[in-house]
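Progress narrative, work stream C.
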Amino acid sequence: MGSPARNRRGVVTGAGSGIGKAAALRLMRQGIDVIAVDIDEEKLADVKSAGCKTLTIDLSDADARARLAEAADGFDYMVNSHGIILIKSIFDVSLEDWRRIQTVNAESIFFLCQQIGPRLKPGGAIVNLSSSSAKLAATVEVAAYAASKTTITSITRSFAYALASRPVRVNAICPDIVDTPMQDHVLAGVSKLRQAEIAELESARTRAVPLGRAATADECAGLIWFLLSDAASYMTGQAVNFTGGMVTW
C-alpha cells in the first residue's frame, strides 16, 4: 500500500520467522533497504538471500541494543516484531518466567524506541507488534505474554507523544490468529495443558473468528507497511486490531 519508497532504510526485529520475516520481505518489495535482526542466525537465511542485510543479536541485552541503535542511525522505519511466548498455567508462572517475558518483549521495545526513535529521520515511523491478547484474555495459559503485550500498547502511546514533534509516528498492531510457527507452538502447548486435541482447539479457535479463518503473515505485513507508509501519515499512538473481527475495541 502506498507508492514504493526509494532511498529509504528500515530495521525489522524478529525477522527470522513469522510476521517479522514477512515484514522484512514486504519492506524489501517496497524498495527499502532493510536490516533484518534476529537472535538466530540460521533463521535469517531466507531474508538474507532476498537481499536484506542481517544482524544476529540478543535484544534483551542492553549493549546489543546500543549496537543496533548505532547501525540504524538515520533510518526511516523501525518494526519491533521480536518476542517470546510462555505457555504455562497462570498459577505456575514463576518470577523468573515473568521477568524473562517482560525483558524480551517489553523492556527491549521500550529502550529500542528510546534509543532509535530520536535517530529516525523526520517523517519516519515505528510499528510495534502487540497482540489481541493485550485486549482479550481468554487464553490464560499465555497470561505473562499477554501482560507484556499490554505493556507494548502503553509504550507505543507514550512514544507517539514523545516523538510527535520530530515528527516520527509510533503505532502498534494487535494480531490474533496468524498462521506462523508461534501459533503452532501455542496450539501444541495449550493442547497439552488442557488435555484437548489440537484439531479440536484449532477448530474452536477458528469458529470464534467472524471471518472464519486465520490471517497470513504477509497480510499482517501489509498492515505494518500501511502504518509505516505516507498513507498513514495522520495516524500515531494507535493499537490497530488485526483479528478478523474477533476483537473490535
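Work stream C, second folded protein:
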Amino acid sequence: MLIVLAEAVLGEGALDAARTVMATMVAASRAEEGCISYAYAQDVLDPAKLHIVEKWTDDAALAFHFQTPHMAAFQQALAGLEIKITELAKYQADDGSPLM
C-alpha cells in the first residue's frame, strides 16, 4: 500500500473558492480502482493549512490517478487560487493493524 501525505498553505479565501472543486476531486478519486482512501482536512490550529491523506493499492494506481481527467480539471480549477503545496511525499506501508 502507498500512503501519500501532503500539506498546503491556503491564501485568503482559497478554501471557500475551491471547496466545490475539492469535493468533486475527492469523490472522483475515491471512485478510482486502487484508491483505498482520499481526504482533505483543514488544520484545527492553523486554518490556513490543509492536510491531504491518500492511500493507494500500488504505484500503478497512483500513476493512473495523476492521468485522470478529474485530476487535470482539478489542477486547472486551482491554477488561479493561492494554494501552495509545502510538503508532498509517498510512503510504502503494510496494511496496518488496530491500535486499540
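Strands lie at 2-10, 35-42, 49-56, 83-92. No further action is required on this item.
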